[in-house]
Amino acid sequence: MKTSTKGPQVFSKHMTGKKTQEHLANFERLLQKMTDPAVNKPGSLEDIRILEVSHANFPATICASMLGELGSDIIKIEPPKGDPAREVTPYGVDINGVGLPFLMESRNKHNITMDLTDEKGRENFARLAGEADVLIDGLKPGELDALKIGYRQLAGLNPALIYVAVSPFGHYTSKAEQFRNIPDTDLTAQAESGFPMLIGDPREPEPYNYPLRAGIWAASYMSGALATAGTLTALLHRNKTGEGQMVDIATNDAISAWQGFSSVWGFTTETPRARIGNFDWGLYPYGYYKAKDGYVTVCAALDHDFRGLLKILGRWDLEDDWRFLFDRLTDDPEKLGELEAEVQKEVGKYGCEELLKKSFDYGIKAAHDKLRSKGFPIVVETKVPQQVVEEKHWDVRKAFRKVEIPGCKEITIPASPPQMSESPMRIKWIKGGIGEDNQEIYKKHNLRE
Amino acid sequence: MKDDYFSFTGGLFDSSTIAEKPEALKEIRVLDLSRIIFGPMVAKWLGLFGAEVIKVEEPEEGDDWRTGTYWGKFWKDSCPYFQSLNQNKYFATVNLKEERGKELLLELAKTADVVIENYRAGLAEAWGLGYTAVSKINPKVIYISCSGYGQSGPLKFYPSYDIVAQSMSGVARGTGFPGRKTYKLPDYYGDFLPALLGAIGVLAALNARERTGKGQYIDMAQTEGLMRVMHNWTYMAETGEDLGCTGNYDPAMAPSGIFKTKDEKFIAVAIATQEQFVALLGAMEKPELAERKEFRSTLERLKPEHAQEINGLLEEWVGLKTEKEVIELAKKGGFPVGQVVDDLKIVTDEWRRERGSVVEFDDKMYGKGKWAGPAVSLSKTPGRLKWLSRPIGYHNQYVFKKMLGLSESEIGDLEKKGVIGYWDNRVGKRPPSYWDIAKDEMFNYGRGDQ
């Protein structure tokens, strides 16, 4: 998809007029001005002091990293040998002994070490927490409390403290107590959230018919983002009242609680959901298809979109086929399978580029249609990450950043959405060394060496 | 006997006290112009924690998701999925085809702290309802646009859905067994995760505004949201290769996977650290393996040939144990294990009930149901469900009288001219058939006052 000299193609008749086009061009210029990185605007959480203490707990680490991007002053406290999260990395690929996910989520953090098994370490910890605005606790539930530096003790010392606890089953309930020894990982949290029970195809041969994990850290990132949103909400309350509080995240519940569909299904049907491969529970067509030379994603779920799809595939004859009526939302995956076979057969006749162009051209034509009832059958290439990095659009939006690790090398990490015009998120540094900020931080906060 | 710490935290989060506690976002007014999931979920977070959310829909049509139900199933003439996404909101309508409709919307926007839209990029601007128009009359506004690819760049006008964003970000090609077909992430993860990042943007902007007094514009791109949570870019830059599909094995944790137990249950095990590995070996009664050089450290263990060996041993071991045995050993030893649960287990889970992440709620209009509660627990300002969704235009009287100060006759005039409106008789949009709308106090808010 190229930007023509006439300006980018639009898919809505509301955006075709000359005056509107001018307005949109002005808006884009305004946007560029607002988000110009050269203007050094302060972040949203400037002067907010945050502590992270966690043990192989990525949701806690991600939360701290997101709060770091928002401009806070953040200290990660590790044991003298470092947080074992440092070694959790795909295929054991490391940079100077530090894993990639750890580096990626070290945004704007100061790294210090502290031995909490030691009296002096606990004293230092209490001193830092006494001055902090937020403490992120990614240790076992009750671990800091047993050391007399948990929320119970710190809230007395610093009533404005926001104490963010991140653990598999949370810091309260009887199950949380029984299971407190079990650590968090993305995979186990996905499982407890019901995610794998919805992925994969039971018609495949064993073991390919097993419930399947999402190939990204779907649970860890959802949990980390929830913890971040919870922290920011608690900060807003504190701004008004001066009062801190405890914020609790159960990583085993992050996806199920935020997405909510599992509860909806469970309560309305009183059955578990069967896995239905790449079919969707509410939308069709809404899936991946094999084109002649690759894979495409087709999304044409509204009636007029589906009709548009039949047109571009040259299969208008299916439009009033009695087998596929009822808006195609059949509760019979077998029958849906028949329609799927037809769609797949047609899609397979064309190359990716050809299909994309058909969709694109249809969208433009439909936008200029007076009745505007022609829909938009969306077809995009089902991209592998190598294709994504080559997409010019992300280059224009600076969606990938190269960051120099001091004294080491440059790494590539994704930027921090959303883009904010007045208090932008920023990646100021990534550091990997264990305790490399000890000197500076110990001195600054008058800690005992 | 309960541990001291857990009695303390149990008191902090006692669900019977939630209704008495304050709300963190009270006095924040949100104008929600969004549809489907991505935008509405930004508003949902704000509404759960006390913001006053006005959801504005088109008369008769409303949000597409009102009828976008799973397998065509409705619950009391409503889409239960829509209910789950649109709680604690006021449902007003405005007809944007009428000039007066746009004016009304801007009048509402003038009083709002936050405006949320998820039209295709540029459309709100083209209609004169974008940030440029709203910030002129309300300079302190926080305005978030949620779109597929953001408001700038060559792809900006292209439409998007959850699955489209999964494809454009590369997520689509990472889930599945090696060399076999790939799967989408279910239940619109491509909407829910980006929506949460959007909510973070709004909450951060509200924090910033308290310090600077300034509002701002937020450009949330769905695809970028997914790209933010992938390790592929860093890995690719280091190795020149993609992470690829690895089935149930997480290449950052060895051993790891979803395995079948002796009693035919699925269970997830993932070992992140050496300490957890030693604990697992203890349970497997193979402590000597920790001494082998292939398994002596996490980075060694993660090397593909070493990982494969240890994964095989784990799979074999799990096959000889029942689900219960594995879980008990994990609790004792302290290594990560998770039950592979389904929807029914989630909604009937005692833990979730006690936690408040699945709540039984008795709604005035829809009666009893079970819904996902707040995904994060706040001890002093807990989120809470106050009411479910309502039919199209249900809160028109309340919104236009109370918030804009219009009179009964002015509203009647708007109704006559088709500037505001209500549901038509389609399921998903109308009140439940048993509901006597004429006697509904909120629907008739302030009627007959003059």
What does this structure look like?
The complex is a heterodimer of chains A (449) and B (450). The longest helix of chain A is centred in the middle third of the chain and has 24 residues, at 218-241. In chain A, the strands form four sheets. Chain A has a six-stranded parallel beta sheet, sandwiched between helices. In chain A, strands 9-10-11 form a three-stranded antiparallel beta sheet, covered by helices on one side. Chain A is 37% helix and 15% strand. Chain A has helices at 18-34, 58-69, 100-104, 119-131, 143-146, 151-157, 174-178, 186-192, 218-241, 254-259, 261-269, 303-312, 333-347, 352-367, 385-390, 392-396, 438-444, and strands at 49-54, 73-78, 94-95, 98-99, 109-113, 134-138, 162-167, 245-250, 286-291, 294-299, 378-381, 400-404, 410-414, 419-420. With 450 residues, chain B is α/β, with parallel strands linked by helices. Chain B has two domains: 4-229 and 374-439, Rossmann fold (3-Layer(aba) Sandwich); 256-260 and 266-339, formyl-coa transferase, domain 3 (2-Layer Sandwich). Chain B has helices at 4-12, 38-48, 80-85, 99-110, 123-126, 131-137, 162-169, 189-212, 222-228, 232-239, 274-284, 298-301, 304-319, 323-333, 343-348, 350-355, 396-403, 408-416, and strands at 29-32, 52-57, 89-93, 114-117, 142-147, 216-221, 256-260, 266-270, 337-339, 358-363, 367-372, 377-378. Chain B has a six-stranded parallel beta sheet with strand order 3-2-1-4-5-6, sandwiched between helices. Chain B is elongated and about 85 Å long. The model of chain B has no long low-confidence stretch (mean pLDDT 96). The chains are: A alpha/beta (449), B alpha/beta (450). Chains A and B meet through helix 1, strand 3, helix 3, helix 7 and helix 8 of A and helix 1, helix 3, helix 5, helix 7 and helix 8 of B.
